[in-house]
Write a structure and sequence with these properties.
It is a single chain. This protein has 123 residues and is mainly β. The chain contains no helices and 10 strands.
């Protein structure tokens, strides 16, 4: 498992859990990133949202490049290959959130959590 420059874990299973009627929402990963982040193309078993705070983000999604600007977001369904085009000379800040929705009988509090952040990295 990775960490930041201070040794803090970047991935915490079920970081946030919201219980709702009939289903639960589990946020598995939530972080603010910038132009120094390198992301290899990968997939998840959960949904992921990228929300752009500042600058422009070039996103590879299903083999196509998309340009995102401030206050725009992209929702990536499970199983879709994606990654960020590495452009360290283009300042940017963005939020990344990986989450899952479980029916109450399958909610994380009722089963053993698994590591579901990055399922497959492709280089």
């Amino acid at each position: 498992m990775g960490g930041d420059k201070n040794g803090n874990a970047l991935y915490i299973p079920y970081l946030i859990q919201l219980q709702m009627s009939g289903c639960d929402l589990s946020v598995k990963y939530l972080e603010q990133l910038d132009e120094t982040c390198v992301e290899f193309p990968h997939t998840h078993t959960s949904h992921e949202i990228y929300f752009i705070l500042s600058g422009r983000l070039r996103m590879l999604l299903g083999g196509r490049e998309h340009l995102l600007e401030p206050d725009q977001f992209i929702l990536i369904p499970p199983g879709v290959r994606h990654g960020v085009v590495y452009k360290p000379d283009e300042p940017k800040e963005y939020l990344v959130m990986v989450y899952a929705i479980h029916r109450s009988a399958e909610s994380p509090g009722r089963r053993q959590p698994g590591l579901e952040y990055v399922d497959r990295v492709e280089r």
